[in-house]
């Protein structure tokens, strides 16, 4: 695999497309166990991300990812803003200085991003948050020597679906305690869109 | 801003305005910055608003940040870390009661640490 400026722009554009398409769905998921703004928050944030990065020329992936981070931080408005903002900032910092990302760099960058999310949200795996998608993916990548798009996407999908049976311990859904069981975690679903977009973009480029 | 200043971070501008009204009625000598709601005035929090509020009230004695729920704390902490502010602390106390106690202490000319300790007393876990 190679993540360069061109396919990272594609990745974000596709993620934005999926989020816009599923804006209502994400909001419905958040209405069930939150405040019903996740679709709106993510749609606003990623719309701005696409606008920003398609209007800018980048020399390297790190600068691009930094702009993704800053835009999400400023524009999202809910918990997803500081969480995804931190994730993309850590990813950007981890790959600073490299024009493109190969698999080992991507792998360690994603691990740093996960650590950032956990630190920011004081969250661990099993608490029905987006950590429940990011951590299984990082674990999966650790056992791989090259990027397998289909495998990556299916791990993300399974992890996202597994949040349904969990009881929320962090975020707004935690206030509902056991009433949160039986619903997908909205942030895990939006994370799935982000990662399935990446898988699609990297699959094309094989 | 001879005294410690306060910044209120909430999901709603009505909350931050209301708390500021309650406090300034009793403690007029403390600057209170507000960061309530999103850029569009919706329910949520915004890191740029927090930064702006901090810079509006920052004096030599420092600033204490109070937050309500969820993203308010994450954005408050991020605003402090990313701008590398000195003497700006996020306080672990309920936003209304904590900020009220802090303002009274700040109004008596106490230091940042003293005011923070007074606000966090009974609440810190
Ligand atoms: N402390 C946390 N740690 C990790 N993830 C979290 C945390 N809090 C919320 N999340 C994730 O964020 C998602 C909700 O994002 P959303 O943008 O709707 O924020 P919100 O909860 O409405 O924000 P706010 O805290 O401002 O009310 C959840 O589905 C969950 O995956
Ligand atoms: Mg929400």
Automatic annotation (TrEMBL), chain A:
This is phosphoenolpyruvate--glycerone phosphotransferase. SUPFAM superfamilies: DhaL-like (SSF101473). The lineage of its organism: Bacteria, Bacillati, Bacillota, Bacilli, Bacillales. GO terms for biological process: glycerol catabolic process. NCBIfam families: dha_L_ycgS (TIGR02365). GO terms for molecular function: glycerone kinase activity; phosphoenolpyruvate-glycerone phosphotransferase activity. It comes from the Bacteria. The keyword Endoplasmic reticulum does not apply. Residues 6-200 form the DhaL domain. It catalyses: dihydroxyacetone + phosphoenolpyruvate = dihydroxyacetone phosphate + pyruvate. One of its GO terms (cellular component) is cytosol. It comes from Oceanobacillus indicireducens. Homodimer. The dihydroxyacetone kinase complex is composed of a homodimer of DhaM, a homodimer of DhaK and the subunit DhaL. Keywords: Glycerol metabolism, Kinase, Transferase. Its EC number is 2.7.1.121. PANTHER family: TRIOKINASE/FMN CYCLASE, TRIOKINASE_FMN CYCLASE. Pathway: Polyol metabolism; glycerol degradation. It is an enzyme of class 2 (transferase).
UniProtKB/TrEMBL annotation, chain B:
The keyword Ribonucleoprotein does not apply. Keywords: Kinase, Transferase. Coiled coil: none annotated. Transmembrane segments: none annotated. The keyword Transferase applies. It catalyses: dihydroxyacetone + phosphoenolpyruvate = dihydroxyacetone phosphate + pyruvate. Component of the dihydroxyacetone kinase complex, which is responsible for the phosphoenolpyruvate (PEP)-dependent phosphorylation of dihydroxyacetone. DhaM serves as the phosphoryl donor. Is phosphorylated by phosphoenolpyruvate in an EI- and HPr-dependent reaction, and a phosphorelay system on histidine residues finally leads to phosphoryl transfer to DhaL and dihydroxyacetone. This is phosphoenolpyruvate--glycerone phosphotransferase. The lineage of its organism: Bacteria, Bacillati, Bacillota, Bacilli, Bacillales.
């Amino acid at each position: 695999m190679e993540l360069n400026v061109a396919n990272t722009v594609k990745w974000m554009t596709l993620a934005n497309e999926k989020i816009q398409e599923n804006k209502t769905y994400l909001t419905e998921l958040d209405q069930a166990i939150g405040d019903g703004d996740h679709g709106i928050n993510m749609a606003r944030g990623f719309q701005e991300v696409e606008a920003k990065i398609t209007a800018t020329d980048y020399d390297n992936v790190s600068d691009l990812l930094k702009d993704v981070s800053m835009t999400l931080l400023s524009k999202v408005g809910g918990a997803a803003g500081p969480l995804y903002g931190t994730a993309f900032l850590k990813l950007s910092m981890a790959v600073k200085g490299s024009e493109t990302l190969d698999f080992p760099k991507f792998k360690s960058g994603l691990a740093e991003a996960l650590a950032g999310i956990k630190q920011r949200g004081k969250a661990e795996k099993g608490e029905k948050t987006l950590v429940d998608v990011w951590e299984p993916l990082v674990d999966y990548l650790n056992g791989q020597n090259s990027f397998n798009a289909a495998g990556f996407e299916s791990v993300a999908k399974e992890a996202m679906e597994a949040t349904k049976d969990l009881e929320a311990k962090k975020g707004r859904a935690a206030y509902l305690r056991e009433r949160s069981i039986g619903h997908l975690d909205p942030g895990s679903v939006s994370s799935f869109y982000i990662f399935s977009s990446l898988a699609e973009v990297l699959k094309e480029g094989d | 801003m001879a005294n410690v200043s306060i910044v209120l971070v909430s999901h709603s501008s009505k909350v931050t305005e209301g708390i500021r009204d309650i406090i300034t009625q009793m403690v007029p000598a403390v600057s209170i910055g507000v960061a309530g709601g999103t850029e569009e005035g919706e329910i949520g929090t915004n890191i740029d608003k927090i930064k702006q509020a901090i810079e509006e009230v920052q004096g030599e004695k420092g600033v204490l940040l109070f937050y309500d729920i969820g993203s308010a704390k994450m954005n408050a902490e991020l605003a402090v870390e990313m701008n590398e502010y000195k003497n700006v602390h996020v306080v672990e106390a309920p936003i209304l009661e904590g900020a009220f106690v802090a303002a009274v202490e700040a109004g008596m000319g106490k230091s940042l640490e003293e005011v923070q300790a007074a606000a966090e007393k009974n609440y810190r876990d």
